[in-house]
Amino acid sequence: MANITDFNASELSELIHQRQVSCVEVIRSYLVRIEKLNPHYNAIVNLAPEEMLMAQARQCDEELARGQSRGWLHGIPQAIKDTGHALGFPSTLGSRVLASNMPRADSIMTDRMKAAGAIVVGKTNMPELGLGSHTFNELFGATSNAWDLSVSAGGSSGGAAVAVAQHLLPVADGSDFMGSLRNPAGWNHIFGMRPSQGRVPFGPGADVWADQLGTEGPMARSVRDLALLLATQSGHDALQPLSINGVLDVSGLQYTPEALRGLRVGWLGDLGGHLAIEDGILRICEDALHTMQNAGALVEPMAMGYDAQALWDCWLVWRRALVGPKVAALLPLPRASELLKPEAMWEYENSLTLSYMDFQKASERRTSFYHHLLKVFEKVDVLALPVAQVWPFPIEQRWPQQIGTRSMDTYHRWMECTIYATLAGLPAISLPAGFHPHKPWPMGIQLISKPQSDLALLQIAASYESVRQELLHHRPPEPA
């Protein structure tokens, strides 16, 4: 048998339930690999004591011996992104201000994954407060890319992406506000999906009405695992009144090219020059689209047909309106104003100048854009964009200040390509697209689909996976 950590989560689940491997063997194998590789990557933080995890694994084995299974994740290790709560682990959000912040309950998503059998072994690293698409903070340090230790893993779900890519975890959860599931997935050669807004109840948080831009979701090395984890995470919860009813039934997904035949793809590229994008990224994405074309997809370059600068201005208002109060809630804590990262304080200070009229106008702009996209989706089934505008950059760099000859006017302008699915609340998936022509750096392409069409998007991804097996079999090197 191959090494236990070589198996995807769904394969491992079958082996466990067939009693071909024990939960104790699974947890031990992953802990050995984490001990070996995590010091190089810094993907998993606040790892639980080994004896505690082994005791949980033994309990899982005893339950199976009695014919009892908690679910498909029975005895499978999981580390929760540090935005989420897991009992017994600090919820730090990568901030020194919250280093000892112990939750009183699991978050909704953590509770569901535990109910399906997952054993929580630790947390995954993230940028402080999830701000910026580069996983570094003053509490735990930076997370290195799974393919090159010298460059960024992306973010904010960077620790999760690297842990999955380097087989420190079979699957992982993440969250996505501005591409935080999509960008690190693309940069680490795995799948990451931002589900429809409300598909996965996020929280509970301080506000359950207006705060509807961020969402949790799955990351995996295969579409089957991605779909199974999303199904586990999904479904209405009364604590989140705007969450979507119904659990996704992913049992009918077909892992054949069939869904690509006749699929209408609108290729947005760089939005007619609006997006600054580093050399080589568009070509890699077009190669991925060409593969889809060869399988029968109809790919057409198209314009988004909406004022992109107006959308960026709308985004800035919404982001400041949602981030500012979260930072404000931390400021009464000891030394918070001096310990919080400058980008967090910048968001807070800008939020103080917003009026209700500013927010209402931005909400109307967002509504107008959503209605516009409904008409666009009468002509195409999915929209395609690069998942990032730059290649992974040096790990010491806070954020890219320039793309080509164009300066970035904010710390997140280089991730502008991710705001469209977020603003419209649409499902979007990051698919591995290829690699830099001269470096070992991966790149992804994102597909955005119609409202609440998560299952259809997963089917498209499953079909894409079936025609890109040679690319997907590439595995990152391990440090010497």
Structural topology:
Blueprint: H1 9-17, H2 23-41, E1 44-45, H3 50-65, E2 77-81, H4 108-115, E3 119-124, H5 158-165, E4 171-176, H6 182-188, E5 191-194, E6 215-220, H7 223-233, E7 264-267, H8 281-294, E8 298-301, H9 308-330, H10 336-339, H11 342-351, H12 356-376, E9 382-386, E10 402-403, E11 406-407, H13 419-424, E12 428-435, E13 442-449, H14 454-467, H15 469-472
Parallel strand pairs: 2-3, 7-8, 7-9
Antiparallel strand pairs: 1-3, 4-6, 5-6, 5-12, 9-13, 10-11, 12-13
Q: Would you write up a description of this structure?
A:
This protein has a single domain, classed as Amidase signature (AS) domain (Amidase signature (AS) enzymes), CATH 3.90.1300. Strand 2 (77-81), helix 4 and strand 3 (119-124) form a beta-alpha-beta unit. Helix 2 (23-41) runs antiparallel to helix 3 (50-65), helix 9 packs across helix 11 and helix 9 (308-330) packs across helix 12 (356-376). The model has no long low-confidence stretch (mean pLDDT 98). With 480 residues, it is an alpha+beta fold. The chain is built from 15 helices and 13 strands. It has an eight-stranded mixed beta sheet, with helices on both faces. Strands 1-3-2 form a three-stranded mixed beta sheet. Strands 10-11 form a two-stranded antiparallel sheet. The longest helix has 23 residues, at 308-330.
